[in-house]
Amino acid sequence: MNLSNCPLARHIRVTAVSEADSALRRRLGELGLRTGAQVRVQRRTSGGGVIVAIGDDRLALARPVQRQIQVELCSAGAAA
Amino acid sequence: MRAAADLPAPAERPDPLPGANCHERSGLAPTSTSPVVALAGPPNSGKSTLFNALTGAGRAVANYPGTTVEIGRGRWVVPEIGELALADLPGTYSLNPQSPDEELTTGLLRGADLVDLVVLVCDAAHLGRSLVLAAGVRELPVRVVVALTMNDVAADRGVTVDAAKLSKRLGVPVVKVDPRRRRETGALSAAVVAAFDESVPAPLGLVPATNAGSSPSGCCPNCPPGCTCGMDAGAPDQEHLELADAEALFTWIAETSEMATTRTDEVRRNRSDLVDRWVTAPVLGPLIFLAVMWAVFQATTRLAAPLQDALDAFFSGPVSAAVKALMSALRLSGGLIESFLLNGIVAGVGMLLTFVPLMTIMFVLLALLEDSGYMARAAVVTDRLMGALGLPGRAFLPLVVGFGCNVPAISAVKVLPDARHRLLTALLVPFTSCTARLTVYLMVADTFFPGNAGTVVFAMYVVSILLVVLFGLLLRGTLFRTMGNDPLVLDLPPYQRPHPRVLGAITWTRVRGFLETAGGIIVATVTVVWLLGVIPAPGSGGHFGAVDIADSLYAWLAGLVSVLFSPAGFGEWHAVGALVVGFVAKEAVISSWAQTNAAADGDLTGLSHSVLADFTAASGGHPQAAALAFLIFILAYTPCVATLAVQKRQIGLRWTLGGVAMQFALAWLLAVAVFQTIVAFS
Questions:
Q1: Do B382 and B425 touch, CB atoms closer than 8 A?
Q2: Across the interface, which of A29, A32, A48 has its CB nearest the CB of B246?
Q3: Measuring CA to CA, which residue among B191, B195, B160, B159 is closest to residue B175?
Q4: Which of B25, B138, B154, B633 could be disulfide-bonded to B124 (CB atoms 3.0-4.6 Å)?
């Protein structure tokens, strides 16, 4: 499961960020999207984008970026 | 108390960058004697607001020498030291640059003898993110004072940052500031004064791996547990080291953030999230965006127009009358000096000043959209549409404004955070058909296509949009081939109420910058065109200053150049003369055309007759084809000299001239193609 096909408004954890594009990976890391980060997809926007909440930060990501980020549901979220 | 002279002079410190020299330093500080303080921080951290709060009159925003990246420069007067040269560097998330703007900041920070002290702006509401840059800067041999901003936003979320704990962790002073209310900047100056008294702090040493190479075990010191890179034969590769460094860095950031921050249990609703629910929604978001664009367009056209007309009337009325009265008092009436003052200086200054209301409105709107946080949302909403053209979503705004006037539109490219995107957009804006061109379309369409004038004018707008799209794709495929098509990764800052004082300061700085750049260019060009009209053509026998326009150097040159336009069907001096005037300002095309055709100003019927006769003769009996070719040329070549002036300010002289050449070439090719095709098929 990656950010483009994960459920909305659930607590999810980043399990891997693709190493294909190292500059993108580094920038995502700087913005808080790194392996182990707990995030939440708040909503989808027009044109396939998503807005992701990382703590108090909000990031907008285009679809090609979403596919680079593998996620899993947090256990609390999975039980709910 | 220390004087500026007591501070270590730049030359006394070691120079780790061979390329760093006085020229680069002078790009940061207008006077070489003041110590240079750089303001650095992530985007949206309140850096420019702090810059405006710290500096007073005399600040300026201009491109850093040799780049198309803007930096702010100003004087920061600190009583204990004197004057500091404060440079507002483009925002960057880290010292790993991903755009020319971030590259400039990184380069200037790394060039240790360029900057004497860094005021590092950290956003208390997004501390973790700010610490990425802080950690990078703390590896550099430079004095650092951290200015902690956005404490009120953080407090709204139940977050408090402990400045003392953060200071201990970072090894440099940390001062809370509230630049929006101009409070506590005194504490910041005191910290800066104290930092100048101390020696340069030792680097934090968080990322030794890339500097030290492999550790004795063969594995890098920052490797996460369970790493097997050291088991392989040979040294670990650079990428692995970087990843390991990044892990160490992020762990340190998480720890620091945790240590310095206290959170109350009270969870308040994030108001920005509530607004974003509407503003970025799939259908409503684009509708809200279109409404905002409509408002911006109306403000830069309808709202600006009466102000511009009033200024125009003021210059052609009272100011001209005053000059005439003065001339008659000096017994210089009707002479060359009067003509120079009226048609050169007054006309040029008048034209420059009519842009002031328009530019002021544009700059206020830009600051409002940026500071409120809406511009980031607009970029999200338009990302896909503009992405198809290889442009980021924010490029939509300058292109929309361009249909009103190209001059503020080119200034509006500053909403794009990447210099390459700004350059590309600034080269495309001139193809958006501004309202000044509409006056020419209407006259020509009425004359040559009396029954279908509306259709012809509409077609010009369709062609305009096609030119933007096709020329954009052409540039992307050629000159801009190396520009990556980076997918959107965008931080959405919380919405904020813009502060009027900050808004006013930013607007004034930008309007003044426009006047300084555009003033000389516009007045000089208007004067040159006036001069051409009063110099007699070779062999005409006229006298300097007393020559009929048809016998002037202007008509003679237009006649020479008109040969070029024969293949387009309008190789005739009146039409080419109108194009020359159109290079200065499209608004003046009709009146100048009437003047050279000896039709009274406002007598459009008389003008229509002579233009129709001219085009019929020049085109060999295909006046309609020639008229269409002429319209296409009007659309595609240089919009006006004011556009060139703002382009020069945004993208530099070389790209501006390159753009002029490209537009001329394209306009000529299209005009010839249109004329020849229609003639061949008729």
A1: no
A2: A29
A3: B191
A4: B154
Lowest-pLDDT choice from A11-15, B381-385, B674-678: B381-385
- DSSP class of B587: G
The strand ranges marked E within B465-556 are: 489-491
Tell me whether residue B36 is exposed, middle or buried, using C-beta atoms within 10 angstroms of its C-beta: 0 to 12, 13 to 18, 19 or more.
buried
- Kindly report the nearest CA distance between residue A71 and chain B, in angstroms: 17
Does the distance separating the beta carbons of A49 and B380 come in below 8 Å? yes
Residue B620: count of CB within 10 angstroms of its CB: 12
Cross-chain CB nearest to B282 (options A44, A60, A64)? A44
Q: Which of B27, B184, B176, B4 minimizes the C-alpha distance to B82?
A: B4
Angle between helices B374-381 and B271-279 (to 10 degrees): 30
- Report chain B's terminal Cα–Cα distance, integer Å: 86
Q: Which amino acid belongs to residue B44?
A: N
Distance between CA atoms of residues B527 and B343, nearest Å: 7
Q: What are phi and psi of B121, to 5 degrees?
A: -85, 120
First to last CA, chain A: 18
For the whole model, what pTM was predicted? 0.82
Q: Strand (E) positions, B162-249?
A: 174-176
pLDDT-based confidence at residue B600 (cuts at 50, 70, 90): low
**Per-residue pLDDT tens digits for B452-510:** 999 999 999 999 999 999 999 999 888 888 776 778 899 999 898 888 888 898 899 88
Cα–Cα distance, B128 to B610 (Å, whole number): 71
Beta bridge partners of B174: B146
pLDDT in tens, B17-57: 333 344 456 667 655 578 999 999 999 898 988 998 898 77
Nearest to A22 among B94, B239, B489 (CB): B239
SS (H, E, C) chain A: CECCCCCCCCEEEEEEECCCCHHHHHHHHHCCCCCCCEEEEEEECHHHCEEEEECCEEEEECHHHHCCEEEEECHHHHHC
How far lies B49's CA from each of B134, B179, B185, B230, B612, in Å? 19, 6, 12, 48, 57
CA B147 to chain centre: 27
Which of A28, A42, A46, A54 is the best substitution to test chain B (most B C-beta atoms within 10 A)? A46
pLDDT in tens, B46-87: 898 899 889 877 788 888 888 888 899 999 998 888 889 999
Dihedral class, residue B444 (left if φ above 0, else alpha if ψ from -120 to 50, else beta): alpha
CA–CA separation, B45 and B124 (whole Å): 9
